Amino acid sequence: MQGSSFNGRERKSMGTASVLGGRPISDIVVTHHARSRWADRVETEKTGFHDITAFLWNKLKSDSIRTYYKNEEDVFLIDDDLVMVAEFAPVVQDLPLGAPQRYKMIVVTFLGRMSETMELRDLRSYYSWLRHSRRMTLIKNSRKRK
Hints:
Layout (H helix, E strand, L loop, with lengths): L1 E5 L2 E12 L2 E9 H10 L7 H13 L3 E3 L7 E4 L3 E9 L12 E11 L9 H23 L1
Parallel strand pairs: 3-7
Antiparallel strand pairs: 1-2, 2-3, 4-5, 5-6, 6-7
């Protein structure tokens, strides 16, 4: 495994690719935002970029990461509990003819554990409620200003 830092993100590469959502993953990039959410919501002791990427590689290898919803492409469940948001970008490299395109997984954030935060069990209704709640707060605040 190799680790390096670039553009405010930590990156770790593996020699062999693990597959997630039909995409061969050869790189994991953890953003600073994801690292801070990891420290706040997941783990308080092992909070380094290396710790997070090692955890994710182990979960990828053991096939413990799956999509949150069937057709969802950016929200994932780890061990049916931890909710993670990730994006994918093709790895630019010279591939042999016929070799599959490899991707880097960019971890955007960790939303938390479903076992600790009940709202994460149905993200669609949770975000719908958040939008409604935010809209009502904005309406209420605009009435106060008038």
